[in-house]
Amino acid sequence: MKAKHVRRLAWAAGIGLSVATVSTALFMPEQFLQAEFARLRWLAGAEVQSKSVADHRWVYLQAGFSDENSAQKPLMFLVHGYTGSKENWLPVMRELGKKYRVIAPDLPGWGETTRLENADYGVVAQSERLTQFIQSFNETPSILVGHSMGGHIAGLIAARQPGVVSKLVLMSAAGVHFQENDFSRSVLKGGNPFEVKTREQFHAQMSLVFTEPPFVPWPFDEAMVQRRRRDAAFEAKVLDSIGRGNDVIALQSELEKIKLPTLLLWCKDDRVIDVSSVPIFQAGIPHSQALILEGCGHMPMMAKPKEVAQGIESFLQ
Questions:
Q1: Residue 161, domain extent
Q2: Which pLDDT tens digit goes with each residue over 219-248?
Q3: Does pTM surpass 0.85?
């Protein structure tokens, strides 16, 4: 075969591959997002598992289970926040999985875990479901880490079911009054600062929760927008409950019931759950200590995974 003919074939194949890639990105951006999640799972040594508990099929990530000494590692659960998912924890699972067996579920109603029509997905109902999920591993008490809404849920479990948890980490946690900010004022007026129906709104949310937003190129951002657009009605209903309903500060009156060693882990520049929450938690939880990180916002486990892992390990040791 002549060299010129080979070059033409290679050029045509390259063009064909490029067209196929662009077409996939245009019509199936979710495939690109799933490929990125697979890459992050590989880096974290994590795998996807599922089980049925509390009338829901839970889908979760686990890491730290595969080495020969895994049975001696403490068991830790990581609980995501509002509009979050189990994948939020992958950067920090990469660190924590070295010393702990780590499980990060999609909470009921969120991500890949079952969502039931007309079910209650407020923090009190979720705390009851999550208690059953943790107990299903037949290894309580366990270490419980909750972020934002997940922190509110984790705190309720520690207060109401103390035998389930050995140590508690509340990370940028909701559930108490804090100094008003633009985010809280918008929610109380009936708005949803986390609403995402366009790529512009998605990047606005990234700017809200990160001090230095990560670069999320197309088509990854488009895949996230499509997910969030499908979940818009569900997100709005949950926000009515956790942001404006009876559950807004369900944890504050129960803080004194938390007798466990508790780490309060925040970012100084959190524009969602203001750092003024920390002294309120400290005043209510007798055995609590605080770690305030610089240079990050509402997503410390993604913005500062190594510092977060080190802070949690130091606290646990």
A1: 36-182+234-316
A2: 999 999 999 999 999 999 999 999 998 889
A3: yes
